[in-house]
Recover the amino acids of this structure.
């Protein structure tokens, strides 16, 4: 299994839709989990951390399932501005660095 | 609030030329990282510095060297550029090794080697 795996998409959704992304990770001892957002030709930016109890930030909800080693991101009421690539990020082996998934592309259309 | 600053933003090199990519952060972070991003490959770690005075190899270190000049600055050097090093290079920093609070990225350097 690759360290961090994501469906590359693209996910094409209309404005107002709800969309969910999943990500699986291989290192059962990982402790830190994040979702980053990357716009075209820009740097990745932290969207939210993912906690064991799950967390919500406005229209965004992140969940962690340690038993199955997957992380999810739910976006409600999609906006055109949500169009971007979403990167799943996990502690790498040795915990000194973070390992990034290849990303899932989201395209929100009018 | 500058965050992480990378220079240059764009560069074209000829095969065999050398250059240094500069990175500086003003957040008093201890750890710094260099990644490259290629289409279909995602972000791959080249080198990192967990703290001032230390550097370690990442996933793809061949062809690169780094220097942690001080707590603020972490440079990446290509001694003899090759077309395979055409990529977008991102520098990042974090408060602690392992990025427990996440990384802050610079805006990137787009490098083309011809």
């Amino acid at each position: 299994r690759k360290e961090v795996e994501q469906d590359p998409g693209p996910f094409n959704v209309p404005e107002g839709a709800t969309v969910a992304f999943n990500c699986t990770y291989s290192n059962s001892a990982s402790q830190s989990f994040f979702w980053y957002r990357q716009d075209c030709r820009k740097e990745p930016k932290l969207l939210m951390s993912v906690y064991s109890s799950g967390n919500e930030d406005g229209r965004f909800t992140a969940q962690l399932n340690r038993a199955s080693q997957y992380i999810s991101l739910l976006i409600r009421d999609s906006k055109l501005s949500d169009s971007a690539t979403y990167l799943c990020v996990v502690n790498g082996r040795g915990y000194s660095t973070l390992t990034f998934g290849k990303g899932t592309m989201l395209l929100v259309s009018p | 609030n500058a965050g992480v600053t990378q220079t240059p933003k764009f560069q074209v090199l000829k095969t065999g030329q050398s250059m240094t990519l500069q990175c500086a952060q003003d957040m008093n972070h201890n750890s710094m990282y260099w990644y490259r991003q290629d289409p279909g490959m995602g972000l791959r770690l080249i080198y990192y510095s967990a703290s001032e005075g230390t550097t370690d190899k990442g996933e793809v270190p061949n062809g690169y060297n780094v220097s942690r000049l001080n707590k603020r600055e972490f440079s990446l050097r290509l001694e003899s550029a090759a077309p395979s090093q055409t990529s977008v290079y991102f520098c990042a920093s974090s408060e602690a090794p392992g990025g427990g609070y996440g990384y802050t990225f610079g805006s990137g350097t787009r490098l083309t080697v011809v």
Remarks:
- Chain B touches chain A through 24 residues (CB under 8 Å).
- The mean pLDDT of chain B is 94.
